[in-house]
Specification:
Order of helices and strands: HEEEEEEHHEEEEEEEEE
Number of strands: 15
Mean pLDDT: 92
Radius of gyration: 19 Å
Distance between the termini: 71 Å
Structural class: alpha+beta
Low-confidence stretches: 1-15
Helix content: 10-25%
Strand order of the largest sheet: 6-5-4-3-2-1-15-14-11-10-9-8-7
C-alpha cells in the first residue's frame, strides 16, 4: 500500500511540476517581455551535412503571431508572412501560396507571453505538448526541465527549458511522419529577458538549416501594414 501511495504521489508531483515550469517562465518574463523584435539572419541550408545554399533574411515581428521575412533584400519582393495561423509566400511581389501553418516555434520562444496563462496551457496542448508530463535531466552540461514527456527517449512533442534562465533550448516534434529537432542556442541579454541568436533545425537526425541572428532590436516601432500580406510594398521598415 505504501509503494502504491508513493507511486501516485510521484505522479501527482510530476504533473504539478510540468504546469509549474510553464508558470515560472510566465511569471518571470510575461510582464516585461518585448512587444516586437527585428534582426538580420544569416541562413544556411544543408543536404547530407553539406551547405547547399545561403541567404540573408531580414525579419521583423510583433508578438504573439505576426512575422515578416524579406529574403536577401528588403526590396526583393521575395517575402514570407506568418500571420496568426497562416503563412503567405510572395515571389517578385506576387502571391505564390497560402497555407495553414501555426508557428509553434514563435509561440514557445515568446509569443506565449502575450496571452493569459490559462490560454497558454490550452495552446500548448493544441500544439501537441502534454503539460501533464515532465522530467528533469541535463542538456549540454546544464540542468533542464522537459515539458511534454516523462522520461528519456519518450515520443511526443516536447520542449526543454533551461532550469536557471527559464528559456527554451531544445524542441522535439513529430509532424507528418518526420521527427524534427530544433536547438535554440547562444542566448544573449536583451532588455529584461533573453533572446536566442542561433537556431539549428534537424529533420530525422539530419541537419537541415542553421540560423544566426545579428542586429537585434527589441520594441521597435513597426507599422501594422508592414506585417499585412495584403499591403506588400506599401510600407517600408528597413533602412538601407
Amino acid at each position: 500500500m505504501k509503494k502504491l501511495f508513493l507511486f501516485f504521489f510521484l505522479c501527482i508531483a510530476a504533473n504539478a511540476q510540468a504546469q509549474d515550469i510553464v508558470k515560472k517562465m510566465y511569471s518571470r518574463y510575461a510582464k516585461d517581455f518585448r512587444k516586437s523584435l527585428s534582426f538580420v539572419q544569416q541562413t544556411a541550408f544543408y543536404q547530407n551535412d553539406t551547405i547547399v545554399r545561403k541567404a540573408v533574411w531580414y525579419e521583423a515581428l510583433v508578438y504573439p503571431d505576426k512575422l515578416r521575412i524579406d529574403i536577401n533584400s528588403p526590396d526583393s519582393g521575395n517575402v514570407i508572412f506568418f500571420v496568426n495561423d497562416s503563412a503567405y509566400r510572395y515571389q517578385n511581389n506576387k502571391l505564390k501560396g497560402k497555407s495553414y501553418q501555426p508557428h509553434d516555434l514563435l509561440f514557445v520562444l515568446g509569443g506565449m507571453y502575450s496571452f493569459p496563462l490559462d490560454t497558454v496551457y490550452e495552446k500548448l496542448k493544441r500544439f501537441g505538448y502534454d503539460t501533464q508530463k515532465t522530467f528533469e535531466t541535463t542538456w549540454k552540461g546544464k540542468k533542464v526541465i522537459v515539458v511534454g514527456a516523462d522520461k528519456e527517449k519518450a515520443g511526443g512533442n516536447q520542449f526543454w527549458v533551461d532550469k536557471e534562465k527559464l528559456v527554451t533550448v531544445r524542441i522535439l516534434n513529430n509532424k507528418n511522419g518526420q521527427k524534427s529537432e530544433i536547438l535554440c542556442e547562444d542566448y544573449v541579454r536583451l532588455g529584461k529577458g533573453w533572446c536566442e541568436t542561433s537556431i539549428k533545425f534537424y529533420t530525422n537526425g539530419k541537419l537541415r538549416q542553421t540560423e544566426k541572428y545579428t542586429k537585434l532590436k527589441e520594441n521597435v516601432k513597426i507599422n501594422p501594414d508592414f506585417l499585412d500580406p495584403d499591403k506588400l510594398g506599401e510600407v517600408k521598415f528597413w533602412k538601407q
